[in-house]
Amino acid sequence: MKSSVLDAPLRKNLPFVLPGLIIYVAFVLGPIIAAVVLSFTKWDGLGRPELAGFGNYLQLFGDEFFLKSLRNNAVLIVFYCLLPLLIGVALAAIVSRVRKSEQLALRTLLFMPYIMPSAVLGIIWQWLYNPAFGPINQILRGVGLGALAMPWLGDFDLVLPAVGLVATWYYFGFCMVIFLTGLQRIDPSIFEAARIDGAKPWYTFGRITLPLLLPEIRIVLLLTIIASIKSFDLIFTMTRGGPANATLVPNIYMYELGFQLNRYGYAASVAIVGAILIFAVNYAVHRFVRPAGTGAR
Amino acid sequence: MGQLQLAGVTKSFGKAEVIQPTDLEITEGEFVVFVGPSGCGKSTLLRMIAGLEELTSGDIVIDGRVVNDVAPVERGVAMVFQTYALYPHMSVFENIAFPLRVAKLPRKEIESRVRRAAAILKLENRLDHKPAELSGGQRQRVAIGRAIVREPQVFLFDEPLSNLDAALRTEMRVELSRLHNSLGNTMIYVTHDQVEAMTMATKIVVLRDGHIEQVGTPLELFHRPVNRFVAGFIGNPTMNFLKASCLGETGDGVQLRLETGSVVTMPVEGAARQGDDLTLGIRPDDLVIAEGAARFEMIPEVVERLGNQSVIHGADMAGEPICAVVGGAEPITQGQKFELGFHPDKAHLFRPDGTAFARRNTALA
User: Fold this and answer.
1) Which helix (H) or strand (E) holds A245?
2) Looking at the complex, does the CB of residue B98 fall below 8 Å from at least one CB of chain A?
3) Tens of pLDDT along A259-291?
4) What pTM, to 2 d.p., does this model score?
5) Are residues B286 and B210 in the same domain?
6) In this structure, are residues B285 and B325 in contact, taking their beta carbons and an 8 Å threshold?
7) CATH code, domain carrying B247
8) Least C-beta-crowded within 10 Å: which of A33, A46, A233, B96?
9) Does Transmembrane helix count among this protein's keywords (chain A) (predicted)?
């Protein structure tokens, strides 16, 4: 039997692999290693880095700004992950029952925010939230609800939910599309069998639809939690972490430390902690959200 | 309990009428098989009975109650799907128990009913397994178990064996017939496989293009098909159809000439005029080598040797395709012509519009 080209000696295959490998090492692996190394140093970006051991990390966990950024991030997970997931599942359940032609229109409409650059959305929503001439407050005043017209991005308590809701609006269409594909994957006769067995829609949803959507729920959880931990552009364009660090998140903090305060070593340690958090969440989701029905016990 | 009546039932999807006005009576304990080619409306009819499709017009009556607007669960029917429709994340026990949990039956009652169904279906050792860990036949039995525990008046089966391999299909066919004998419930079974229909049914309903072509016992359909479609659909291998020209009526029946030149008198009732283009139907099993009142020569093209019998595919001297089933020891070889014949009382005669002449003195057994 003719052997595969992949069975050839390494030196013969290397020319095929090398271009991709060089790009990967130069732009992904190299910077990761550099960031890890940098996180153990003090460096202002100009002089020679000074070895700091675990000093940056020890300082980080006593740093009230970093801890606040983590707390803010935890709140944002609700808006980046939980709400889009719930809205996405509900919308998928509704849209999947609509006729095909109308379903296409609805799907496109609801998915639309996701195709726009989030930085552009941040600028648009900053304008929408503008306390003086922003359409949201204008409409509230127009319908006699002027008392509810708030300085959305200027209030310490409102700003985080206000920014978070934009993320929810950005991600729910994406979640819905993932869940719709999940629903299409499920054999429709399963739902018909449940109907003949007398299961009401809510019972069917809880006992059959949701468990069978676990693979999609897992993907959505992974992607949205990672997105929330990586969140930067939306917040940067809307509030730059303000007011008074009310929307500070680790990535904004890392940006400020590195590119405004020239504390590259310390900023790298923030980035590394963020990466570790992403790995930890990935592991937790993989560990605890297990798709059913694969026969695994 | 378990009586079902369809009265003027129709179903349209948009402008397409997939079920034409249909009347059908099913009595208690019958094993009724809806059979027909793909797209004939048999599954739609079953789904209408189940309550999964709304009727366009007409009534479905179960045990004297019109159930047109009654929810599926309240119709007293249980359905087994072609794809099994098992809940993949639940164990076999939970799958079978599902309708009982929906009905909020006490835990002990659920336990006992599931165990009873599992015993009937020989699934006792599989109750903790997930459907993915079962073979096709076992999955199908779980689906049947889920139907049994509901203790319905009518069981509905939608091509339940079509996903199984040939050996398992034969095994499950026997098991389903055995189950019908032991439970005694009314069962309605949809299939496109006429062998399943013939072997399992007490009554067969042959459908074509949303219309019932014939209703009857398997032997009635086999021996007295009302038209050429039913004659061709029932029986394996399918019936041979030979062009014939009517020479006139005699006291013994209708005399006709085959394309090969053979003249034969068919013992049938009904009027036929000289010159009418008729079709003679003869089943492959009723063709015999060098015997019978009517004879013609056949050139074999393919010889399928099955051991106890051989199936010969070929053509007569007029070029019409012929299939014959002969004894396994017959020395038939490809390309070497031989003489075939048949007894007219075994053959069928069809008018130009496809309807059958009634045969005289045809015993069903």
Assistant:
1) none
2) yes
3) 999 999 999 999 999 999 989 988 998 888 877
4) 0.81
5) no
6) yes
7) 2.40.50.140
8) A46
9) yes
